[in-house]
Amino acid sequence: MTETEIARGAPLTKGGAPFAFHVMAKPTGATCNLDCEYCFFLSKEMLYPGSRFRMAEELQETYIRQLLEAHTRAPEVVVAWQGGEPTMMGLPFFRRAIELQAKYAQPGQRVLNTLQTNGTLLTDEWGVFLKENDFLVGISVDGPREMHDAYRVDKGGKPTFDRVMRGLDVLKRHEVEWNVLTTVHAVNGDHGGQVYRFLRDDLGATFIQYIPIIERATPDTLQIADTGWGSGVHGRPLYVQDGSLVTHRSIAPEQYGRFMIDVFEEWVRSDIGTVFVQIFDTALAGWYGEGGGMCIHAETCGQQLALEHNGDLYSCDHYVEPGYLLGNIGDRTMLELIALPQQQKFGQDKRDTLTQFCRDCDVRFACNGGCPKDRFATSPYGEPGQHYLCPGYKDFFHHVQAPMQAMCALLRDNRAPSDLMAAYASQDAQRPRNSPCTCGNGKKWKHCHGAPAGLRDQPAR
Ligand code: SF4
Ligand code: SF4
Questions:
Q1: Residues 6+ apart with CB under 8 A from 65
Q2: What pLDDT sits at residue 224?
Q3: Is 201 exposed, middle or buried (0-12, 13-18, 19+ CB in 10 A)?
Q4: 397 CA distance to ligand 2 centroid (A)?
Q5: Residue ID of nearest Cα to ligand 2 atom 1
Q6: Which of 30, 38, 163, 452 supports an S-S bond with 120, CB 3.0-4.6 Å?
Q7: In this predicted structure, what is the pLDDT of residue 73?
Q8: For residues 172 and 165, what is the distance between their CA atoms, to the nearest angstrom?
Q9: How far apart are CA 326 and CA 371, in angstroms?
Q10: What is the structure's pLDDT at 44?
C-alpha cells in the first residue's frame, strides 16, 4: 500500500484498524538543538516534565516490532523518524533500529526509513550510515540565506544556514536520497519563484514539500508569541490548537495562494516530471480522480499518528496534546489504539465537519477543506470552522485547474504530463511582452515569468 493510499483513507480491518498507517516517531520527543521561532513542537517538552527525552531500548524494540507486525499486508512499511531533532539520539540508536527491523521484518516486507532533520548535526559518519541503509532524508531549508535565517535560528538566536548547507553537502557527498521541506511564512511568502529556483538550481532539489506556517494564538498568547519567546523553549507557552488569531510570522491566506501560483508558473514551464512538488502531485491526483497524496487534502485522515519518546501515541503530529492521547504502546498495541472509536472519529470528522461553504465549493474534490487544525476562520456564509487559508487554496486550485485537466487528458492518452510544457512554450512564444503575467500578480509578462532566466529575481519594476 502506498503512502497515497494511506493518506486518502486506507481500508480498515474487521477490528477497525487500517491495513496500513503512518507513524512519526519522535525518539527525542520535542528536544532539538535549534530554536526555530515558528516551531510549534518545541513547547511539547512541557508535557513530560523531568523526562530525559530519549526513547528507551525496550520501547524502541516494542515500537519496531509492533509497526512491522501491523503491516503484514503491506509490501512496504515506512519507519519515519522525526523530532524535535532525531539525530540527537546519535548513530547507535539508529544502528540498533536497523538490526531490530531485520529481526522483525515480515516475509517479503520492505522497510523504508525516513528521517526529517534540520541537517546541522550530520557528519560523514552519518552520511555513510544513511546511504548504506537507504534512508530517505528530508532536510529543512526555508530558501536563500536571509529567508532561511529569518526564523531558523539556534538556541543562542544565531543563524543556521551555513550549518544546514554543510549537512546537505554530507548527504550529497554520500549520495543519500534527500528531499527538501520548506516552510512558507511571512518572510519568504512573497518570493515563491525565488525560493523555488533557489531550491532547484542552487541546492539541486528534485522533491519539495511546502508547509505553510500558521501559528494560532489567542489574545492571551498572541503578545508573547509576537514579541518573541524569550530564551528558548522555556519562554514558550504549550502550543495547542486554539485561538483564531495568528502570529506575525504566519503566512497570510492570499499570500500563500500567490506563493504556490508563483512556483507553479515556473514548474509547469520547465520541470514537470523532473521536479516533484508535493501539492502539485496531490492536485493532479485529485483531478485524475485518485484522491490526494497529502493528508490535508484527503477527504478523511486519522492514519498519520505521532509516537512520543515514551510510547505515548497521539492522533496526529499536530495534535500532540492531552485531549488527543490515544494511549501508550507499552500498554496496548498500536493497532488497538488506532482502532479506538475516538481515532476513527478524529479521521472522519475531517469530512463530516466541513462547512457548507466547502461542500458547495467547486474545487472541494482537490482541497477537501484543508487540515482541521487550521479551520478557525469564518466562512463567507458566516459559519465557524472554515480553513484559515481558504482564499489562498481557492486561488491556487482555480489557477491550476486548466493545466491539471490538460495533464489528465495526456495521462488518459498514455502520454506524459510533461508534454504540456511544449504547449506552454508555444503559447509563450506568441505572448506580447507587455501583457500581464500569467501568474496574475499584476506585473508585466516580460518582468515576471517571461523574464529571461537569471533576471527573474530582480526587484519588480
Ligand atoms: S489533522 Fe491535519 S495533519 Fe493531522 S492527519 Fe489530519 S489532515 Fe493530516
Ligand atoms: S478552497 Fe476553501 S471552500 Fe473550497 S474546499 Fe478548500 S477550504 Fe473549502
A1: 100, 104
A2: 66
A3: exposed
A4: 9
A5: 394
A6: 163
A7: 82
A8: 10
A9: 20
A10: 76
17: confidence class by pLDDT, cuts 50, 70, 90: low
Would you say the CB of residue 318 lies under 6 angstroms from ligand 1?
Answer: yes
Say which ligand is closest to the CA of 377. 2
Q: Are 83 and 138 in contact (CB under 8 A)?
A: no
SS3 content of the chain, % helix, strand, coil (to 5): 45, 15, 40
CA–CA distance, 440 with 428 (Å, rounded to integer): 15
User: Residue 231 has what pLDDT?
Assistant: 42
Contact 191, 143 (CB under 8 A): yes
This prediction's pTM: 0.92
Strand partners, 342: none
Nearest ligand to the CA atom of 392: 2
Q: What is the pLDDT of residue 461?
A: 39
Closest CA to 269 of 204, 316, 177, 200: 200
Residues 369, 299: Cα–Cα separation, whole Å: 8
Ligand 1 centroid vs 120 CA: distance in angstroms? 28
C-alpha cell, 313? 501515541
**Residue 275 per-residue DSSP state:** S
> What is the C-alpha radius of gyration for the chain, rounded to an integer number of angstroms?
22
Side chain identity, residue 136: L
C-alpha cell at 58: 525496550
Give the count of beta carbons closer than 10 Å to the beta carbon of residue 454: 9
241 in Cβ contact with 315 (< 8 Å): no
Strand-pairing partners, residue 327, are: 313
**209/137 Cα distance (integer angstroms):** 13
The 3-state secondary structure of 139-191 reads EECCCCHHHHHHHCEECCCCECHHHHHHHHHHHHHCCCEEEEEEEECCCCCCC
* C-alpha span between 321 and 313 (Å, rounded): 10
